[in-house]
Amino acid sequence: MDGEELTEQETALYDRQIRVWGADAQRRLSKSHILVCGMKGTVAEFCKNIVLAGVGSLTLMDDRVVTEEAWSANFLIPPDENVYGGKTIAEVCCDSLKDFNPMVRVSVEKGDLSSLDGEFYDKFDVVVVSCCSKLINEKCRKLSKRVAFYTVDCRDSCGEIFVDLQNHKYSKQKIEETIECQLQYPSFEEAISVPWRALPRKASKLYFALRGVFEEAEGRSPGEISIADLPAVLKLKKELCEANALNASHVTDSLLERLIIGTREFPPVCAVVGGILGQEVIKAISCKGEPLKNFFFFDVMDGKGVVEDVSNPKKESK
Fold this sequence. Notes:
It is built from 15 helices and ten strands. By secondary structure, it is α/β, with parallel strands linked by helices. The relative contact order is 0.15. This is SUMO-activating enzyme subunit 1A.
């Protein structure tokens, strides 16, 4: 992304943004390449935000066919079978996103992202995946260049973001002084391996629910758990809490039941979490502003978002 200046057309189109975060940040955005896998409602909100911000290119991956559940939370899919008939979700979303900003190259890539080699990932600066993926995170980390990695997921009234920027350098403004900073991020595997007893007592209950109980329930991901699994999930919660010396009341049965029953995305939550994700990716690309580290949780019932730094202090100090 270095050495390429903004064109006159880009400067004119992004004039207001340049006034906010500067020409250098906009240049970095305009030359960046983003890969997104899994076009769910939250990801659709994110894609809209970064296309409007003016990234260089956006590549979409989602070979699923359009269903009622898909378009009920994804505003990029018109509720008209004549429009999406015979197309994949990625193809329909691609057509819609091109209308938001003609200067951004939006394309579709078919296939299974987890089966592709490092050469494919090397074309991108940012990889965003819907739902967690340890494998894809590790593939990004093995590349010779640094690729920012994000996962995002929403279940009914709750949402989650995970961030891995590896060794990230950025600048932030403090009064009239610009400070150069650096953050070291753990991988997804390293983060979820941090013992619960090492976390702050006030750590988000959603972390334990989503990244603990759901992650280990019969070896399946949250999206594959149904209401029939509730008794097993509650039993597993009790065992995990006892093993990690955590008060079982911190992860309530009602929260787990709500997460299991609410498998669909709630559009207002998609807008909030997708907006936060867009903001974080812009900060990572522009290297301006302090990025969140490394989990973000949002729950409508609490009416707030929480940032949790789940890292291994001993490993980071090396």
